[in-house]
From TrEMBL:
Domain Ketopantoate reductase N-terminal: residue ranges: 3-152
Name of the protein: 2-dehydropantoate 2-reductase
GO annotations of cellular component type: cytoplasm
GO molecular function terms noted in the UniProt entry: 2-dehydropantoate 2-reductase activity
EC number annotated for this UniProt entry: 1.1.1.169
Lineage, opening ranks: Bacteria, Bacillati, Bacillota, Clostridia, Lachnospirales
Keyword Translocase on entry: no
UniProt organism field: Hominifimenecus microfluidus
Pfam families: ApbA (PF02558), ApbA_C (PF08546)
UniProt keyword annotation of Lipid biosynthesis present: no
Pathway named in the protein's UniProt entry: Cofactor biosynthesis; (R)-pantothenate biosynthesis; (R)-pantoate from 3-methyl-2-oxobutanoate: step 2/2
InterPro entries for this protein: 6-PGluconate_DH-like_C_sf (IPR008927), 6PGD_dom2 (IPR013328), ApbA (IPR003710), KPA_reductase (IPR013752), KPR-Related (IPR051402), KPR_N (IPR013332), NAD(P)-bd_dom_sf (IPR036291)
NCBIfam families: apbA_panE
């Protein structure tokens, strides 16, 4: 069996390390770049996971690009949204119609985008709840959870079997992986959370605790949730009021005081970010569908301006 993991950052490093450990006798390939690739070839990839322990893994091979790889059974793509189109261009030779491609990323539309860029393979939709990041030396996963959901809209019977097999492949490696009945709704439940949680923590460069303790910021958080919900409803996604209540309940009572987001970590460190994924997409879809999204629009404008000033755009 051939499995390729492309993008060995926080998410891909977690999933890839567990897969490489479990499937030592299969052909697991990591696509990595530069010094991290060289280090992994020499010393292996070190995962330190609160949830799944420490793993030092040596995949069958580490390559700098997927170009030149033979056809794979599974390709798992865990890059940031802004890299997705570029990496998909390198995949055409290693994907054929039997290949299962799983982008494990944030955002409402990575699956649709991969389907559009590749035009072949069985491309699944997915989402992940995890807190993970890379350092030059290792992959760190924090907290007692890391959960993936996969699926596809209107799958055929054959596709359903393949999706179940993909979930089993990951679960056997220790990646909690579940097949979602309605993956589109599951993605949006998480995406609506991201539209408030990631955007607010990044905008204020603050963890959740101080945001929910501030009345004005907490109200603004709720408005972000409701704007994204309104866009979801206009798109006919099956998200319900009880899902929204749960997102808001989590904000006040469940998220840790020091909980941060990937967008906050990226913007806080002055890196290129997924601002367009969490804000730009909602603003664009709001305009297209005639749904007002004034709070998101204002915060997006200001954060974009910060990125322009920092030379990131
Ligand atoms: N981190 C988290 O806690 C969570 C992240 N997510 C989502 O998961 C997705 C991935 O995030 P995350 O893992 O944090 O991102 P990272 O930035 O940590 O990792 C992305 C990786 O992709 C690699 N990459 C990009 N382009 C290429 C390329 N052409 N060839 C090879 N490697 C490439 C980068 O390589 P290099 O190291 O060389 O830059 C990097 O290691 C995002 O959509 C994010 O929003 C979802 C939930 C939580
Ligand atoms: C909300 C959270 C932490 C959940 O995994 C996330 O998706 C992110 O940080 O991007």
């Amino acid at each position: 069996m051939r499995i390729t993991v492309l993008g060995l950052g926080g998410v891909g490093g977690y999933v890839g390390a567990l897969l490489a450990d479990q499937y030592k006798n299969e052909e697991v390939t990591f696509v990595m770049r530069g010094e991290r690739a060289a280090r992994t070839r020499e010393q292996g990839l070190l995962l330190k996971s609160d949830y799944r322990g420490t793993h030092l893994v040596h995949p069958a091979q580490v390559v700098e690009s997927a170009e030149g790889l033979p056809v794979q059974d599974y390709v798992i793509v865990c890059v940031k949204n802004y890299s997705l189109e570029e990496v998909c261009r390198t995949l055409s030779g290693c994907v054929d119609d039997h290949t299962i491609v799983i982008p494990i990323m944030n955002g409402a539309d990575p699956g649709d985008r991969v389907r559009q860029y590749l035009g072949k393979g069985l491309v699944l939709d997915s989402l992940i709840y995890i807190v993970a990041f890379r350092t030059p030396e290792e992959i760190v996963q924090q907290g007692n959870f890391a959960k993936v959901f996969i699926g596809k809209k209107n799958p055929s019977e054959v596709e359903q079997e393949k999706i179940a097999k993909a979930a089993e492949l990951m679960a056997a490696a220790g990646v909690d992986c579940f097949v979602a009945d309605d993956i589109e709704a599951a993605i949006w439940r998480k995406y609506i959370l991201n539209c408030a949680y990631n955007v607010s923590t990044a905008y204020y460069n603050s963890p959740i605790g101080p945001i929910r303790a501030d009345k004005a910021r907490a109200e603004e958080y709720e408005k972000l949730v409701y704007e994204a919900y309104a866009v979801a409803l206009a798109k006919k996604i099956h998200v319900e009021q009880k899902d929204i209540d749960h997102i808001i309940w989590r904000f006040y009572y469940d998220h840790a005081e020091n909980a941060s987001s990937s967008l906050q970590r990226d913007m806080g460190a002055g890196r290129v970010s997924e601002l367009d994924t969490f804000c730009g997409y909602i603003v664009q879809e709001g305009h297209r569908l005639g749904v007002p999204v004034p709070v998101m629009e204002r915060m997006y404008g200001e954060m974009k301006e910060r990125e322009v000033k920092a030379g990131l755009r």
